[in-house]
Design a protein that fits this description.
The protein is mostly beta strands and 448 residues long. The chain has helices spanning 52-55, 80-93, 101-104, 112-118, 408-412; strands at residues 9-13, 65-67, 164-165, 170-175, 178-183, 189-193, 200-205, 211-216, 223-227, 233-237, 245-250, 257-261, 267-272, 277-283, 289-294, 301-306, 309-318, 321-328, 342-344, 350-353, 359-363, 366-372, 384-390, 393-398, 402-407, 421-423, 428-431.
């Protein structure tokens, strides 16, 4: 077994929320300094719950997680020593086991009536009132209550996956404590402030382009689902992480949302976002996670990647219920690498970039082969930040300023014998910047 291999597997049980209020029960708003308001669009059957039906996010009743990679993230630069240390700790921990009966006995079982209430549907026509806040943030000497905001100019170019298309003319991105929408034709930019106190962690757009999610930073940050283009607040997802969200993404059909938090919990959470309900959660890894993405081809499958790792997840039905099972990618003979960009192929294999410029083809959680140029040279000089599947092409972009197109069929059908290296040549390439000062391509998105 290679010292760089990580062998920890993760399973997490279903998390059900506290019972929703029944028809003969009155609930109390859990937020403070919030006036009771009800939407004119609420159904008559929701009148007793009033604004609480929308403000609620069920308190977690029980979660039982086995995660054998419990090592804390080392501070400082993400160098090879740090990644190898994380891999060694993960390997030493051994394979994860399913939560046993003894552990299950410590949780609270949900009876039939509670389960029915926990799956209560929210009114799909409900929107939060204008000016709604979960909690009032403390003001500072340079806070919005103390001084008048004028403008913010800039773009967080170092943040991965920070640009999304809302439609064919408008893009959305975060900058500091704000998110902004820019019209590519008129160049007009509209600026919106975050609702929590720590800034914006990540943004993602719903597949039908009618909603987008703003995942924030700060103490117990929230995920805010906004309707587009009305910009009305539709849903609020709470208690998915303690300090910040690294990444959020909708499933292909748009019914689920996946989120990944940062230190100290590194939680992967699956949401029934329309009903503000947490379905599953598990610790994703013991170091930073850069990306979470649902499979575009297989329902209930996801991939996460980050510092020195990539992980392949399944939402699996077992005799004890729905679980989130994660298999860590085993680099084997290859050098351990941070993984920023990856993409799933139609047959279920996954192709990912590395920080040393090659592409790795994964079959399950094992390396099938590594793509290099003729002579064993790397495909890019430096890290590959983006890997996109488009029709019959794979598109990569990296720190060397190159955007390169590769033949999907050649990649998908590649086979090797004794060596892991498979030589491949790009179909075409384009360089941004100059040879002396190439652009470092951090984000790249396709228009709808």
């Amino acid at each position: 077994m290679s010292g760089n291999e990580k062998t920890d597997d993760v399973e997490a049980k279903v998390v059900e929320g506290d019972p929703k209020p029944s028809e003969d029960t009155t609930t109390t708003d859990k937020t403070t300094d919030q006036q009771d308001k009800s939407s004119p669009k609420q159904e008559e059957g929701k009148s007793e719950a009033n604004d609480d039906a929308a403000n609620k996010v069920a308190d977690d009743k029980s979660v039982e997680v086995t995660d054998d990679a419990q090592a804390k993230s080392a501070e400082g630069d993400k160098d090879s020593d740090k990644k190898e240390e994380g891999a060694e700790k993960a390997a030493a921990a051994g394979d994860g086991d399913a939560v046993g009966d003894d552990e299950a006995a410590n949780g609270e079982n949900i009876d039939d009536e509670e389960a029915k209430e926990a799956h209560q549907q929210m009114d799909e026509n409900y929107f939060y009132p204008d000016g709604y806040v979960i909690r009032v943030a403390e003001d500072t000497p340079i806070g919005r209550k103390s001084i008048k905001f004028h403008n913010l100019i800039g773009f967080e170019s170092f943040k991965h996956f920070n640009v999304q298309f809302l439609d064919d003319k408008n893009i959305i991105y975060s900058a500091g404590m704000t998110f902004q929408i820019t019209n590519l034709d008129t160049k007009e930019t509209k600026l919106y402030h975050g609702r929590d106190e720590g800034g914006i962690g990540n943004i993602c757009v719903h597949p039908d382009r009618k909603f987008f999610a703003v995942a924030e930073k700060g103490k117990n940050p929230n995920i805010y689902i906004m309707e587009y283009p009305s910009m009305r607040l539709y849903r609020v997802l709470q208690k998915g992480t303690e300090r910040m969200y690294f990444s959020v993404n909708f499933s292909l059909d748009g019914n689920l949302l996946a989120s990944v938090g940062g230190s100290p919990d590194y939680l992967l959470t699956i949401w029934d976002w329309k009903n503000e309900r947490m379905i599953l959660k598990s610790k994703a890894f013991s170091q930073d996670i850069f990306r979470v993405e649902f499979s575009p081809f297989s329902e209930g499958q996801l991939v996460t990647s980050g510092t020195g790792h990539i992980r392949f997840w399944k939402m699996a039905k077992t005799f004890t219920g729905l679980k989130l099972q994660g298999d860590i990618g085993k680099f084997g003979q290859l050098e351990l690498s941070d993984v920023f960009g990856f993409s799933e192929l139609p047959d279920g294999k996954v192709i990912s970039g590395t920080e040393y410029g090659s592409l790795i083809l994964w079959d399950g959680n094992f390396v099938k082969l590594q793509f290099v140029l003729e002579g064993g040279n790397s495909l890019h000089e430096g890290v590959i930040n983006r890997v996109i599947l488009e029709d019959d092409r794979i598109i990569t972009a990296g720190a060397d300023g190159f955007i390169k197109w590769w033949d999907l069929s050649e990649i998908d059908n590649a086979e090797v014998d004794e060596t892991l290296d498979f030589e491949i040549a790009p179909l075409k390439q384009l360089r941004l910047g100059t040879d002396d000062e190439p652009a470092n391509i951090i984000s790249m998105e396709k228009s709808p």
